[in-house]
Amino acid sequence: MAAISLAFWNPVVCLVVFLVVIALIYLLRSRGEGGYKKGTEQTKAFLCGEELPEVEERHVKAHNLYWGFFQALKKYYDPTIKAHTGIVNDYVLWLTVITVIAAITFTLV
Amino acid sequence: MNFLTSNSSILIIAIPLLAAFLVPLISKASAKGRNIFVVVVTVFVGILVAILAKDVYANGAHIYTLGAALPDITLPRGYIVPVRIILEVDGMSIFMGIVTAIVSLAAVVYSLSFMKRETGQDKFYTLFLLMMVGMFGLEFTGDLFNLFVFLEILSISGAALAAFRTRFGDTVEGGFKYLSISAIAALMVLFAIALLYAQYGLLNIGALAAVIQFTSLDKLALALMAIAFAIKLGAVPLHMWVPDTYTVAPASITIMLMAASQACLYALFRIGFTLYGGTTGTISMGWIVIILGVLSMFVGVTMAIPQTDIKRLMAYHSVSQIGYMLLGVGVGLAVLGDTAALNAYGRQAMSGGIFHIINYALYKGLLFLTAGALFYRLGTRDLNKMGGLARNMKFTTIFFIIGALAISGIPPFNGFASKFLIYESVYQFSPILSIIAMLVSIITLASFTKVFQAAFTGPALPQHKDVKEAPRSMLIGMGILAVVIIFFSLCPGLIVDNIVQPAVDALINQGAYINGIMGGGL
């Protein structure tokens, strides 16, 4: 059995770094202002003096994320999404085509 | 203990089979008793898998011949070929057995609460146990026809479970799609087996591997089996049923379907390496596996990121993750005949691919269970309707973070360790393939960042103000997988050395598999 190395990878080092970062975050947090009053203006998000929108409007919805990415790759996404029709007949068509290709490839090679 | 060790392989299949038919009877007496019974059976099967694993790692392949005077007598007196049903459990089979045992345990515990509101739970647990039978049988059998039989058991029980919650219309559609593609795949496997049997008069994999000539009919049989298993494991472009079925199945069944796909991946590897391993077709077969892998990785992840249904998004990631396994093991298959390349990077690529199988089962299982917990509490899978859930579902959030970091290959999680092995070794085979794999990992991270942002962070939405944490048994189910992920993350070397490498060796060493059958005469 030949040994497979994980090269320089040692998860314990990573764990130690993680714990140090957690300790630093805790230290930073503990130096914050503790004497604030919950539920007052002090704990409200400040939006340049504007009224905060309703909660539902403040949360960025999933369909809004990465909009630019999808726009940039529109030429890829349009046909790819179109190919996923959800119709079993289409699945069988794909299967038939791939099986024929595989059978020809395998028998010729 | 000796009895358990020598009969463990058949007991692992027989016990859940018997228990499956006892479940409706016990259910008549007590629902609680039935739940306890199913959990006890699953735990006991897990213990048997551990006993069998210890035996395989200590003594090599475990052979069990049904009906023989002694389990390891594969050739009856006067015969030169095996005629009985034989189970052959080597390093690769037991590796898959371990995956199935862990996933089944997490799924059954999770189901206790998740399926509590559903009717017909006796049927649910009967089918669940039959699914276990199908998976273990597929992984342990040394016989092609039995492989087909177990594939059928797995497919029929899986389809029925995917469609189990008939009150949702889409579940029936998902189950129907799974049943359709499974039926076609099974027929292709059966036809391929018939082609081999007509030529050689054999069904045993080891015996067939010893005599196979790689004729045109053999090549056709290989093509049919490769495509059939590629459909079942959801490799692009045959993956389209995966999001449709995984999305609508109960979360605990989604992870069982995922484990079933991996059992089919095992069957593909067994056919490629063991049955056809000694032929000249491994290079072309290896390249086909690599191409399927790269396509699966890329199309899977790019289709995942626009999704707004949390389970559909995760289902596309399943397609993508399967690609990593195909890539790693495909590189090993492509260089199987080149000893220098195999030793330089082929074995490492295979180790990465096989290590990724178990890692994927763990973190993807955990992610699907967290998605199930959200559905259980919110009644929706739509990410657009979620937000701020980390406030009320703290444990689910932690489990999601663990799963998301692991699947994205973020150190120190187990997903990183297996992906790292794949990147490093595949780079030596073809740098561009390795770069694609890394790119896919980055998009995976982006995709799960989207889920985390949409579902767990942000202000608490008024409609989810009173949402509670998932029930205890669901948390325990998720906890089982999370604990194993953390263990694997902290000790990747231990896992690679003790369970992954024996699996790689078992695949590469075709002679040992053949000898296990053909050297077992009186």
Could you provide a short overview of the structure?
The complex is a heterodimer of chains A (109) and B (522). By secondary structure, chain A is mainly alpha-helical. Chain A has helices at 11-30, 55-58, 67-72, 74-83, 88-108.
How is this structure best described in words?
The complex is a heterodimer of chains A (109) and B (522). Chain A has helices spanning 11-30, 55-58, 67-72, 74-83, 88-108. Chain A is built from 5 helices and no strands. Chain A has a domain at 63-109. In chain A, 56% of the residues lie in helices and 0% in strands. Chain A has 109 residues and is mostly helical. Chain B is mostly helical and 522 residues long. Chain B has a domain at 280-490. Chain B has helices spanning 2-29, 31-59, 91-114, 121-140, 144-162, 169-200, 205-211, 216-233, 241-248, 251-275, 282-304, 310-334, 339-378, 394-407, 414-429, 431-456, 472-490, 492-508, 510-518; strands spanning 62-65, 86-89. Chain B has a two-stranded antiparallel ribbon with strand order 1-2. Chain B is globular and about 75 Å long. At the A-B interface, helix 1, helix 2, helix 4 and helix 5 of A face helix 6, helix 8, helix 9, helix 11 and helix 13 of B.
Sequence-ordered SSE layout with sheet pairings:
The complex is a heterodimer of chains A (109) and B (522).
Chain A lengths: L10 H20 L24 H4 L8 H6 L1 H10 L4 H21 L1
Chain B lengths: L1 H28 L1 H29 L2 E4 L20 E4 L1 H24 L6 H20 L3 H19 L6 H32 L4 H7 L4 H18 L7 H8 L2 H25 L6 H23 L5 H25 L4 H40 L15 H14 L6 H16 L1 H26 L15 H19 L1 H17 L1 H9 L4
Antiparallel strand pairs in B: 1-2
